[in-house]
Design goal:
This protein is α/β, with parallel strands linked by helices. The protein is built from 8 helices and 10 strands. The protein starts with 7 loop residues before the first strand and ends with a helix. The structure holds adenosine-5'-diphosphate (ADP) and magnesium ion. The site of adenosine-5'-diphosphate has 11 residues, from strand 2 and helix 1.
Length: about 250
């Protein structure tokens, strides 16, 4: 990756994002130190996904500064391909290739974009499958796996690119409740292993347990932020309402 002057993997400085006339991020500032976990929570439409999409360059910003993995995304001519090698993103829908095995799904991207040998890519697949607890599923096809296992494969696929930073956008929202636990456990173990991450989640007890910083987004701004204790004593009616409806 490009060199960083400090240990923050991500820095938002008064970031503004507009879709036409609609201002979706209205001056957002926070940073993500290396090895830390930031959780974004908030009602639907508050700007959480947009913030994540800006981090890996899926969306350009219209104001402020955004530093990610030593790159200045607010400046022109950002190397988006290089950025996306450093930043993994996992969504609610995992979109595995149905006609490829788990191992093939995982090795595809490293082989194409990093031109790794088959043997090297396999080695990586073996390692990342172990990290998500699916070592025995390398030769399985997605349809032979549960939704939770498929989402863990999607996480492994992202890890295979050896990212500096992982983004998770409501990765358990499409899963049956009994399957969310295994996915959250996987993310928690990655966090414990020192992976830097930003996660958007509805699972507030999970956010409380895993995140170093929780950010409550409301109408495109950081409305409240703190550690897990902020749920016990919300300072604003908006967070109080959110907590009492969501927990
Ligand atoms: P959240 O993830 O918190 O639910 P989003 O970041 O998805 O919120 O959306 C924030 C706001 O931006 C919403 O009002 C949404 O309708 C709007 N929005 C998101 N994506 C687009 C887009 N591609 N074009 C126009 N408006 C968008
Ligand atoms: Mg969203």
């Amino acid at each position: 990756m490009a060199s960083t002057a400090n240990s923050n993997i991500v820095e938002f400085h008064n970031v503004r994002k507009l879709y036409g006339e609609l201002e979706v991020l209205k001056g957002v500032s926070f940073s993500v130190p290396k090895g830390s976990v930031v959780a974004l929570i908030g009602r639907s439409g508050s700007g959480k996904s947009t913030a994540l999409r800006c981090v890996n360059g899926l969306e350009a910003i219209q104001g402020g500064e955004l530093h990610v993995c030593g790159r200045r995304l607010h400046e022109p001519n950002v190397d988006l391909r290089a950025l996306r090698k450093d930043v993994g993103i996992v969504f609610q829908s995992y979109n595995l290739f149905p006609h490829k095995t788990v191992e093939e799904n995982i090795t595809l991207s490293p082989r194409l974009t990093k031109r790794l040998s088959k043997a090297h890519a396999r080695e990586i697949a073996e390692r990342v499958l172990a990290e998500v607890g699916l070592s025995d599923k390398a030769k399985s096809y997605p349809e032979q796996l549960s939704g939770g296992q498929q989402q863990r494969v999607a996480i492994a696929r992202s890890l295979a690119m050896e990212p500096e930073l992982m983004l998770f956008d409501e990765v358990t929202s499409a899963l049956d409740p009994e399957l969310t636990g295994e996915v959250l456990k996987t993310i928690e173990s990655l966090a414990k292993a020192g992976m830097t991450m930003i996660l958007v989640t509805h699972e507030m007890s999970f956010a409380k347990r895993v995140a170093n910083q929780i950010i409550f987004m409301h109408q495109g701004v950081i409305w409240e932020t703190g550690d897990g204790t902020m749920f016990d004593a919300p300072r604003t009616p908006e967070l109080r309402n959110f907590v009492s409806n969501g927990l």
